[in-house]
Design goal:
single chain, alpha/beta, eight-stranded mixed beta sheet, 8 strands, 46% helix, binds acetoacetyl-coenzyme A
Length: 280
């Protein structure tokens, strides 16, 4: 059904998405304007495949052929594809601009997808006119490990696109949930609520960051606490999602806590900057 996938954006998510499609036997063109970013993405995929091979999840001799299925490119101008998925930063204007460019390149049978964690799928689709089918395919970091694919149905997303998404999930060995296009979908909306409440508890000295995280790890069986997870996702990323949810849903629980704004202002963005709620 899908044999060639174009992934636009070779950051953490793009690299992981390219890897899992290649693992499922599909040909992938990974596109980014930055050669350095593309190089890092392939290195990340190689490391991840090595980890999977070490614990026996994949065969050691599958690594080479999997990586060979990923081609890196600086532009998608001359490509054709069954699926075009964007994994560029969470800025709707950037995503719309990219989709408009792709709309002029790919034929009508190419399904368009966004890996957005909460921006409007319908808004992206409406910028392209009615003939283009667009769906949300929201993956989770680390993509090769996390089992969920959140499928987002925009106002005009076809049933056929939903069926294709289910087919993709089966090939990628992921579980699906289908969510109506609404701010933050299911996962970001729930995730932000818990994380922001944890931050407000830290601000008001209810407990230390370590103990708030331990509450969720040992009390609720989460693999990682909400503050540490925010450090991994990026404080700036979570602030942007929170601002979007507060603007669109208007509910007090989505108002970004002061401590989050303060840390982002100081450049404490989590693991990637060496400091967040924890030192790294
Ligand atoms: N590739 C392949 N395997 C990997 C990997 C990768 N990139 N990262 C971790 N693993 C594997 C390890 O090899 C290990 O395997 P075994 O248990 O079979 O030995 C397993 O995952 C656990 O790894 P570690 O022991 O190194 O570390 P850990 O116990 O801390 O687990 C984790 C790592 C699975 C990522 C865990 O920390 C976790 O579940 N974190 C939460 C992740 C999460 O919540 N992701 C969602 C973020 S939100 C998001 O992505 C959406 C958004 O839009 C912002």
């Amino acid at each position: 059904m899908i044999s060639h996938v174009v992934v636009a954006g070779a950051g953490t998510m793009g690299a992981g998405i390219a890897q899992v499609f290649a693992q499922a036997g599909m040909r992938v063109s990974l596109v980014d304007v930055s050669p350095k970013q593309l190089e890092n993405a392939i290195q990340k995929a190689r490391d991840s495949l090595q980890r999977l091979a070490q614990k026996g999840s994949i065969a050691q001799d599958a690594i080479g052929p999997t990586l060979d299925r990923i081609t890196t490119l600086n532009s998608f101008e001359n490509l054709s594809a069954d699926l075009f998925i964007e994994a560029v930063p969470e800025n709707i204007d950037l995503k719309i601009d990219l989709f408009r460019k792709a709309n002029a390149v790919f034929g009508p049978t190419t399904l368009f997808a966004s890996n957005t964690s909460g921006l409007s799928i319908s808004k992206m689709a409406s910028a392209l006119g009615s003939s283009r089918d667009l769906i949300g395919l929201h993956f989770f970091n680390p993509v090769p490990v996390m089992k969920l694919l959140e499928v987002v149905k925009g106002e005009n997303t076809s049933e056929r696109a939903i069926e294709t998404a289910r087919w993709i999930a089966e090939k990628l060995k992921k579980e699906t949930i289908v969510v109506r296009d609404s701010p933050g979908f299911a996962t970001s909306r729930l995730g932000i609520c818990i994380a922001f409440e944890a931050m407000r508890m830290l601000e008001t000295n209810v407990a230390s960051a370590e103990d708030i995280d331990k509450a969720m790890v040992f009390g609720y069986g989460h693999p990682i606490g909400p503050l540490k997870l925010t450090d991994l996702v990026g404080l700036d990323v979570r602030l942007a999602i929170g601002e979007h949810l507060f603007q669109t849903l208007g509910q007090a629980q989505f108002q970004p806590p002061e401590i989050l704004r303060k840390l982002v202002k100081e450049g404490a963005l989590g693991q990637k900057s060496g400091r967040g709620f924890y030192p790294w």
